[in-house]
Amino acid sequence: MTVQEAKRLAKKIMMAGEIPLLVGHFGVGKTDIAREIAAEHGRKLIILVLSQMEPGDLIGLPVRDETKTKFLPPDWWPDDGNVLILLDEINRAHRSIRNAIMQLLVDKRIHNHILPEGVWLMASMNPPDENYDQVELITDPAFLSRFFILEVHPDVNEWVEWARRNAVPQEIIDFIGKFPEFLSVNYSVSLKATIKPSPRSWYKLGRVFALLSEDEKKEFGYILASGIVGPEAAKVFVDKITLDIPSSIDVLLQGKIPSELNVHEANGLLVRLVDFIASIEDTDLRRLLEKVDTVADNLIKLSQVVPKDSFEAFARMLVSLSNTPGLKGEFCEKLLRKIVTKI
Which residues pair with 121 in a beta bridge? Predict the structure, then answer.
């Protein structure tokens, strides 16, 4: 998602009392999102760079209180609830630090220190790949289940607007406008594939969904759901609540295609079509094979209302499936030939 989309959703998530986790490459604007949200809501911003901290920096120093030992609050601990705390670089934090912040994520407290009511929490990290210095990959489902994962990618138009506001030389703005591929790295490894649904995650999703308008549910429902219950459950959930999006079989055989689709609806529909064809039983596959001309016509019709690059990605998936032995490979190969002939 773009920086502005991540900012919009992060605010909704924190308003619901939950915690967004921004995942993106260095320089994409994760910290700026926190700064802008804090400024817009008049909140003090506290940034904890976890890779540079030890457990004592989170817990505070121990002191003797009569017959007991207690911990003094660390110097960053907020005095009131009008605060946004950014837990930065959690992917580079030692396991002992992640263990220490677990109580903060779960109970909004560390030992005898309790966060004031109303404090917002946000976290950020780089993608989980070999390009970053990480203590270890974060795959603990109990840890990840505390967050709404929002994967942030740079958008050229957004960056150009930001660059103009921040007095970036026009030569650089013009260069990026002409060669957008040089704005940022374009590879990404998703954390979402490791997320599985749980009673807690559905509860968290419900708290955020309660703050969304119907239009926001349609536009951002899948992004939010996939970041807390995982992509598989999110697709089924969004299919269920988004009644105006047709089923895969309706698209392929009946040509029931909306006249307009936003980018999220379009990508969601194409993903569902790929999953449908990849997992279809031979009985239904024979039905599609008998009507392959109709299926090709309907997919060509679909290509007119979805982004060109999204449909090209869908076609590449069909090419991959055409190499599958048996009826599925035969169907995909014949379908691709029909599409190429008809275009």
Answer: 85
Residue 150 burial (CB count, 10 A): 25
Q: Which residues contact 78 (CB under 8 A, 6 or more apart)?
A: 44, 46, 85, 115, 116, 119
Q: What is the pLDDT of residues 258-272, one digit of tens each?
A: 777 777 778 878 888
Contact predicate 91/138, CB 8 Å: yes
| 60/74 Cα distance (integer angstroms) | 4
Q: Which residue has the tokens 């994962």?
A: 149
Neighbouring-strand partners of residue 71? 62
Distance CA 272, CA 113 (A): 47
User: What DSSP character marks residue 28?
Assistant: S
Q: Is a pLDDT exceeding 90 seen at residue 86?
A: yes
pLDDT digits (tens, 9 = 90+) for 12-37: 999 999 999 998 887 778 888 999 99
Write down the pTM of the prediction: 0.65
Question: For residue 252, what is the DSSP state?
Answer: I
Superfamily of domain 3-153+188-212: P-loop containing nucleotide triphosphate hydrolases (3.40.50.300)
Cα 310 versus chain centre, distance: 18
Q: Which helix (H) or strand (E) holds 337?
A: helix 327-342
CA torsion sign, 114 to 150 to 7 to 179? positive
Query: Which residue blocks in 111-230 are alpha helix, DSSP H?
Result: 141-144, 156-165, 170-178, 199-209, 214-229
Task: Give 16's DSSP letter.
Answer: T
Distance CA 183, CA 163 (A): 12
Residue type, position 180, single letter: P
Radius of gyration, alpha carbons of the chain:
24
Which residues, other chains included, contact 42 with Cβ-Cβ below 8 Å and sequence gap of 6+? Answer: 82
Burial class (CB in 10 A: 0-12, 13-18, 19+), 65: exposed
CB 123 within 8 A of CB 21: yes
